[in-house]
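Reopening: Endoribonuclease L-PSP still failing for me.
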Amino acid sequence: MTDRHLIIPATMQPIVERAGYVPAVKVGNTLYCAGQVGRTPQLAVIEDPEAQFIAAWGNLREVLEEGGCRFEDVVDMTTYHVNMSQHMAVFRDVKNSLFPRGHCAWTTIGVSELAHPGLLVEIKCVAVQR
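Support: Ran it again with your exact input. Result attached.
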């Protein structure tokens, strides 16, 4: 039987209690991260698109670090975008400033909405700890 560890950064405990899921599950050296969004630790959605995208990457970084990984360990990523054509240029600029280019498979999907009004992106990934 493979060891399975729930990964819950302390700042994300409120979402676990409210929504009933964990930010990530680690099985062996593979970390499966639930989609991360741009909201504050108090679960408020950040309204400014650029600030929301920066926060989403920051939340993902926090989950990865709690699981013993870094952005460079991500092997597969899917991003879900509301109003993708309107915000993709800003999202890509933020991504390119924070996340290493050319290190993982990346799929982008346009969606009509996410879990809460005002959310513009959700970043889901799988990382393999080196």
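Helices lie at 13-19, 49-66, 84-98. If you still see a failure, please send the error message rather than a screenshot.
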